[in-house]
Known about the structure:
Helix content: 40-55%
CATH architecture of the largest domain: Up-down Bundle
Oligomer: single chain
Largest sheet: 7 strands, antiparallel
Structural class: alpha+beta
Amino acid sequence: MPSRSSVTDGDTGLTSGEADRRRAKEGPNRVDEGRPDPIRRALGKFWAPVPWMLEAAIVLQITLHEYPEAAGIAVLLVFNAALGFFQESRAQATLDALTSRLAVNASVRRDGAWRKIAAPDLVRGDVVKLSLGAVVPADVRLIGGAVLIDQSMLTGESVPAEAGPGFETFAGALIERGEAVALVTAIGGKTKFGRSADLIRTAYVESTEQKAIFRVVRNLALFNGGVTALMVGIGVFGLGLSARQIVPLVLVALLASIPAALPSMFTLAATVGARTVARRGVLPTRLSALDEAAVMDILCADKTGTLTRNALTVAKCQPLPGFDAADVLAMAALASSDGGADPLDAAIRAAAGTANPRGWLRTGFSPFDPAIKMSAATAKDAAGAIIRITKGALAAVSAKATSEVTAMVEDLQAKGYRVLVVACGTKAPLTVAGAIAMSDPPRPDTGPLIARLLALGVRAVMVTGDGAVTARVVADAVGITGPTCPAGPIAQVSGIEHYGVFAGVLPEDKFALVKALQRAGHVVGMCGDGANDAPALRQAQMGIAVSTATDVAKSAAGIVLTDAGLGGIVAVVEEGRATFQRILTFTLRSLVHKAAQVLMLLVGLIMTGGAVLTPMLMVMVMVGGDFIALTSATDNVQPSARPNVWRLRNLSIVSAVLGLCDLVFCAAILGVGHYHMQLGLRALQTLTMITMVYSGQAIFYVVRERHRLGKSRPGNLLLAGSALEIAVFSTLAAQGWLMARLPLAIMAAVFGGAIVLALVLDTIKLALLRVLPIE
């Protein structure tokens, strides 16, 4: 059969040997990101609000000639900076790994044949094919075909440009319609805008949940600021403390108010989650994607490739009088893209083979347009007459189909086939030549996975461009319930959330569907694969690009599936919920402990007339507590049974009650040490520090469970971190290093009291959560 090149054969392209020589000389098609060197990044960890406070504490201690304390704080400052540097490097390494797996591919002509290669392997002079949904992989000049190009992210032009032979476009532009062949004119750093074609455009976006938590923390800081002001007033006017005495106290209070590890916890938890789901076939395009997956309650799933096998085959070819099956398949092949990634076209070309009974030679081709659900070609017969061929949905191919044709199509659809109609003729209206029934059976795991999503509180609905009859057959087979949405504008459908099947859907309808479901109060996940799905993927809280998606769809989505089916979606929901639980634990622990710490300073001032913690001891408590809390990013947790909701009011109330309990415990220990044991101020400072460490451990293990304490086994890293913190602080206190010595008997009594505190707090927590759920 004659060549069926999508647009034009162009030339044979470069040979592999020539491409290798050019790559060796000019380098890969990659742009140096210009990241700051590691030394500069490390130094940057000392230039931020929390390091400033630590540095101020060092200067203050030096001014007061307390050199050992200054040295101790300096060591802790370096440790905190190193921890932040490590976490940032780990997050960047994860994003680099995701970027490499989400690299743009290019269809290139090498050695006279079309092949897929990674965009960084392109060289100047390569001939590439630009198809619907592709990201332009380098600066190119079109040499054949016609496309609609979106260059807005490069040039700022809001209107896409119609482009044909001779048009020059740049790396990173998006193909919104059509198909073309182009010559690579510049690569890598020599491209006009000096950027690579990239799918991960925003690696980390602060989620709504993070913003909400930071508001709660801000309110906590304001509360603690008020307590600090009250403490200053009491110290200066009530106790007559000097500036030399009050400044360290204020510094300690400010340090106690800052949940310094909160941003690191978000990044670390998201990084751990991203690595986990990547091993299960899901690539997040931004680290906040797991937050969004945790709250999703409705999933709009594509039929093809997500619910079905995406292994399209021609099951049946039904010709009409005047044509035979070979004619219909040959004409359908002429109206199919050659060398593209469309599995439907590939299945038709495979079924047609090289047969061409009528000897037609293709002279033009218009690729499939989702807006009109049809592809078209022109061909020349042996007599030189021009024949137009169309392939697509019945309504698109033949506006006035006969009852015989309609009945044939409906009969095939009722059996679950996806039906394409082929028509041809020299002038309109074209004659329907026959129908091709495409088989794509449901995946065997779809039913169980839909049931699993439902158990997690996520209802799956089917969204497909296929007809209602075919869609209903597949929906029933996989367990999707709910009626089929009637035809018509989706925005005008009432009770949109009650439907289970949306058939005959155009890409623009997906956007309207997402908006309608969001107006109904749902958090929406939307699957998509085409360039025209990008608006819907961006609008949805959880945009999901399926495994066969175009580059444009991937760039718009929050996650990209590397495997077909719903398994990756279930994985990201479960891991998102688990990540939510870890962050909730960290947040609750921070709110409880931070409020209690500042109030304890006030109580200690009133009780002893001095500061019950030095700046160095406060920094030690802060770093030690944050270190153990960060280990919760790998803790063993169960995913939430339902979509997560941040109940900030309830969270604040529960934190306040548990914080008051912690305060009572710490104040009681201090009271015993001051009034009964008659300990000096420095010994009381050590006692306060060790009490905060032990009570912080108790609080952490209580709040990590939403049920009874000990219901689940903590993670190994968490247990190791707890043991290390207790061992280090107990040793320092017992030996009197960096602080006054404290007898082992006192520490043992405080540790026993912390165990009792944990049991009491657990009972109070369970009672609170019954009336004030926090998730």
